[in-house]
Amino acid sequence: MKNKKALRLIVIVISLFILTVPMAAANEKVLNIAVQADPDSFDPTRSVAAATVEIAFNIYEGLVKANEYGELEAALATHWEIDPSQTVYTFYLRDAYFHNGQKVTVDDVVNAINRARDPQIGQKAGEYQAIESVYGEDNRVIVKLRAPHGPLIYEFADLAMAIYPKDAANLANQPIGTGPYKFVEWRPNQSIKLARFDEHWADAKPYFEEVNFRIIPDDHSAILNLKTGFVDLIPRLDASLLHQVEGDPRINVLAAPMNLVQLLVINNQDPILKDLRVRQAIALAIDREEIIFGAAWGNGDPIYTGLSPAMPKFYNDSLEDVYPYDPDRAKKLLAEAGYDKLEFTFYLPAQYSLHVNTGEIIAEQLNRVGIKANIEIIDWGTWLDKVYTQRDYQLSIVGLTGKLDPHAILVRYTSDSSRNFFNFDNQEYDRIIAEAIDVPDEQRVQLYRQAQKIMTENVAGVFIMDPSQLVITSKDLKGWKNYPIYVIDVAALYR
């Protein structure tokens, strides 16, 4: 009996050794990445979740793409021209193939652009209404605008403008793009598998032959998977867990700006929250420093408007004192509004521990001024449906990812934007954003700073911080590129 037990123990030890130590060597060309949430939809026109963008960046391409410096580069267009009136864009299409073997045609491009700007289809259609028409001639795609629209070329780098076959039937679950990796399978709540696309138009081929994005919502589990060799990369680690990986010789820790705006989301049309005094009281009750050190362990920069300081040219840095932490003044404003005690439902997205931790601290801060925030932790799919789509909420926490141009960020607060889940409605703000579209860059800077002043003074939301991005990799993984947008560039990685 003792011999059997000893033999069983030896088998277990050997099995564990096989599972952990040699895994990297046996699967040198396979990359495993821990991500926190499932995509919402792989249809570029339908997706709104950052969790989709970080994966889809490797599957789809548009006419242009961003590099790690936020600059635009050629993608499916070899080059482009803009006429003197700034209203006609001509893109020259390169020879490229979709993952299903079909050649990319101008008809595919025209169809994708028209779907993106169709209000009945495209989630971001409102941002493409400057486009009057799109048509193809030979290998050229011509986009005509109603009037000059400065941000347009940057908007063509968005996932919403990705190109796919005109006859593709089920992009939501089976994406077909032209990127360096092709879709293989999606096992909901488990993993997404990609394979290298060897017919990609670029000369250099990616190092990894297979990539698995493993859905691991819990950062503790992600760290355990990294330490045991089951994942190679955690692209965004909760700062409160940094101590678990620092100093480990098997692990690399990289820190970089995220260009993300974390905010307390307020439904501006809620019967109580539509009173500016109530929103002002909430803003005055928020102690950003306590949140940054309590939820992010000091790894973040306080912000006071809807842009991140990572966009210094446009960021309005004069708004810090509009609503400084002042709980006594918050109580007075609530009294003026006729409230002694208030109670709100506070939705927090379960998959994002930073937002959950932030929400718990904010609930305590609000309680100090007489506001009870009843926390409900909900899964990401429910959050997208309830908060983002239906706008059926009072308070929430979320992080809005950075863009290449400030217009793409600020336009979502306009009253007619399909992405304005804050229900913010300010005519002066709308006017300024509309005016900024077709003026010289110097004027855009001033207009966007005015717009930020309006959103802050009117408490469209309470802007909290731009958290630092903590990237955790196995020691042998190289090539990480930090982008100003929410993506993982798998093609750049190697061992």
Layout of secondary structure:
Blueprint (H helix, E strand, L loop, with lengths): L1 H19 L2 H4 L3 E6 L14 H7 L7 E3 L5 E3 L2 E6 L5 E6 L12 H11 L14 E7 L2 E6 L6 H4 L25 E7 L3 E6 L13 E6 L3 H9 L5 E2 L16 E7 L2 E7 L9 H9 L3 H8 L4 E3 L24 H10 L5 E8 L3 H15 L3 E8 L1 H10 L5 E7 L4 H5 L16 H9 L5 H17 L3 E14 L21
Parallel strand pairs: 1-10, 15-16, 15-17
Antiparallel strand pairs: 2-3, 4-5, 5-7, 6-7, 8-9, 9-10, 11-18, 12-18, 13-17, 13-18, 14-18
Describe this structure in words.
This protein is of the alpha+beta class and 495 residues long. The chain folds into three domains: 26-40 and 173-257 and 469-492, Periplasmic binding protein-like II (D-Maltodextrin-Binding Protein, domain 2, 3-Layer(aba) Sandwich), CATH 3.40.190; 58-161, Dipeptide-binding Protein, Domain 1 (Dipeptide-binding Protein, domain 1, Alpha-Beta Complex); 260-467, Dipeptide-binding Protein, domain 3 (Roll), CATH 3.10.105.10. The chain is built from 14 helices and 18 strands. It has helices at 2-20, 23-26, 50-56, 106-116, 152-155, 219-227, 276-284, 288-295, 327-336, 353-367, 380-389, 406-410, 427-435, 441-457; strands spanning 30-35, 64-66, 72-74, 77-82, 88-93, 131-137, 140-145, 181-187, 191-196, 210-215, 233-234, 251-257, 260-266, 300-302, 342-349, 371-378, 395-401, 461-474. Strands 11, 12, 13, 14, 15, 16, 17 and 18 form an eight-stranded mixed beta sheet that branches. A four-stranded mixed beta sheet has the order 1-10-9-8, with no helix packed on it. A four-stranded antiparallel beta sheet has the order 4-5-7-6, covered by helices on one side. A hairpin with a 5-residue loop joins strand 4 and strand 5 (88-93). Helix 7 (276-284) packs antiparallel against helix 9 (327-336), helix 8 runs antiparallel to helix 10 (353-367) and helix 13 (427-435) runs antiparallel to helix 14 (441-457). The longest helix is centred in the first third of the chain and has 19 residues, at 2-20. The chain is globular, with a radius of gyration of 24 Å. The protein starts with a helix and ends in a 21-residue tail after the last strand. Residues 1-25 have low confidence and may be disordered.
